[in-house]
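2024-03-11 09:14:02 INFO queue: dequeued item Tf2-1-like SH3-like domain-containing protein, len=165
2024-03-11 09:14:02 INFO validating residues
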Amino acid sequence: MAQSRQKSYANVRRRYLEFEVDDWVYLDISPMKGVMRFGKKGKLSPRRVGSYQILSQISKVAYELDLPNDLASVHTVLNVSLLNKCVGDRTYIVPLEGLGVRVIFSYEEVSIEILDWQVKMLRNKDVASLKVLWMNQLVEGATWEAEADMISHYPHLLPSVPTLA
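2024-03-11 09:14:37 INFO prediction written
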């Protein structure tokens, strides 16, 4: 009786997945501590990769996937527990190969004006700082920046500020 009860508890959470040929699926990869996978290490590594097309059904729980050449070390026949259905319309997915995407996704913040300036006295030197208002930021988002950095990056803003050095 105890075994039957435990089996009923386990079966409540069990998912029975079945895919068809030509379905698209994501491949689950388990993030392992200290292992570099797909460009990220540890807990920042992706949980799933793909989407890949199912070529054939080997058995009730095994499917053959059409994997790219960079995954040549992975066996093409995988258990159903490692697959997740790709939900959505494949016509809306844009391939990244044709796009001109930069490696570093960053932008340069542009300063608008200098709101305030101050000189802080440290033990044996004075440090000049400027309070800078940045584009797309409110006045509360203004930051204190070193005067030397602002002179090198934004010389056009400094004629209105007295020389601090």
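2024-03-11 09:14:37 INFO annotate: The radius of gyration is 28 Å.
2024-03-11 09:14:38 INFO item closed
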